[in-house]
Amino acid sequence: MAKKKETGYLSAKESRRIAKANRKITDEFEKKYKRKNVPESEYLTEMHDKSNVLEIDDLHTYFFTDVGTSKAVDGVSFEVPQGKTVGVVGESGCGKSVTSLSVMQLLQRPQGQIVSGSIRLNLGDKAYDVTNTPIEVMQKLRGNFVSMVFQEPMTSLNPVFRIGDQIDEVIELHEGQHMTKEEIKARSIEMLELVGIANSEGVYKMYPHELSGGMRQRVMIAIALACSPRLIIADEPTTALDVTIQAQILDLFRSLKDRINSSIMIITHDLGVIAEMADYVVVMYAGRVVEKGTAEEIFAHPAHPYTIGLMASKPVVGKKVDKLYSIPGKVPNPINMPDYCYFRDRCEMKCGPECDGEYPHEISLSPTHKVSCYRFYGQQVSDGKGGEQ
């Protein structure tokens, strides 16, 4: 742990020492990703359940900064079943987007690194562990097998290229060797029509600034779906949109998922979006999963105090209140996380002295509903496979 002055700031000397130590760590990780001609056996893996398209297992993603190591994702585990929608929910800064960027290998490197854990991606005939996959192989997987719709389409689209060129590029990169330029253009226009853009040929020739926010988001979805990926990651795809357009985008996701038979991992802080879209829900707090289960279990029987607080803070139609509920306190510093339950200092449902102990392990309330909280110690149930979890 870095020594701080009484003012709370690091000295320049201490900051340089941390930066030097971090460079040694990140250089080792960078060597692993930049290797050439790596044999496939080094990143081949086996899915624990062949019906899953993605399995994240004890993932740790850290950012090595000049003031210390930020544990943005600190032991996250969950699955995305084939053909299902998994909603990842939590407040800003809880590690949702960093988890998705880890899956895509799009972390801001060299500072951001996957330190440990595994991300198993099901390609159909085989499975890769993304944490061991070199960059040159990952470039072929992105778009083909897993693609991402980013949070803000205006910053994701290149302002100096026409919309058509940007969709063409994706198709040409992954399938261009079998297609002529005319076929690629026809496919791009077809993708624009697929996402509900009526004037597809006109939009094909436009620049991003000529489109509205909803249209730009549809273009981002068209780019993500251009090669019919097995997994679509949508990182808060409706944040900057008004409620009418938001409803249209969510309807679009639902219909397209069924049409190309893919899975969706949707990241949001909006419980309304989760309730409407998700089959399974993962609740994250301070870089960890605090609760996960089916949408029905999470909304009907929320177990973790944080999940209950999130539910209580959402306005309800027809219910008049003087003031909306807000969870008291603030998230702990990710560079100096406590050695007890991360939510303890904000929790209004404390169990007693046991909350001062080590971080609570995961408890199974049902074969699909799991929670990390001392309130449920002693309530462990069968995992549905003949044993306890």
TL;DR?
With 389 residues, the chain is of the alpha/beta class. It has helices at 12-33, 96-104, 135-141, 153-156, 163-175, 181-194, 200-204, 213-225, 243-260, 271-277, 295-300, 305-312; strands at residues 44-45, 52-65, 68-81, 85-89, 112-122, 127-129, 146-149, 231-235, 263-268, 280-285, 288-294, 363-364, 370-371.
Describe the protein in words.
The protein has twelve helices and 13 strands. The strands form two sheets. The protein has an eight-stranded mixed β-sheet with strand order 7-8-9-4-10-11-13-12, sandwiched between helices. Strands 1-6-5-2-3 form a five-stranded antiparallel β-sheet. Strand 10 (280-285) and strand 11 (288-294) form a beta hairpin. The two termini are 34 Å apart. Helix content is 32%, strand content 21%. The longest helix has 22 residues, at 12-33. The chain has three domains: 9-82 and 93-136, no CATH class; 143-278, Rossmann fold (3-Layer(aba) Sandwich); 305-389, no CATH class. The relative contact order is 0.12. The model has no long low-confidence stretch (mean pLDDT 88). It has helices spanning 12-33, 96-104, 135-141, 153-156, 163-175, 181-194, 200-204, 213-225, 243-260, 271-277, 295-300, 305-312; strands spanning 44-45, 52-65, 68-81, 85-89, 112-122, 127-129, 146-149, 231-235, 263-268, 280-285, 288-294, 363-364, 370-371. The chain has 389 residues and is α/β, with parallel strands linked by helices. Helix 5 (163-175) crosses helix 6 and helix 6 (181-194) crosses helix 8.
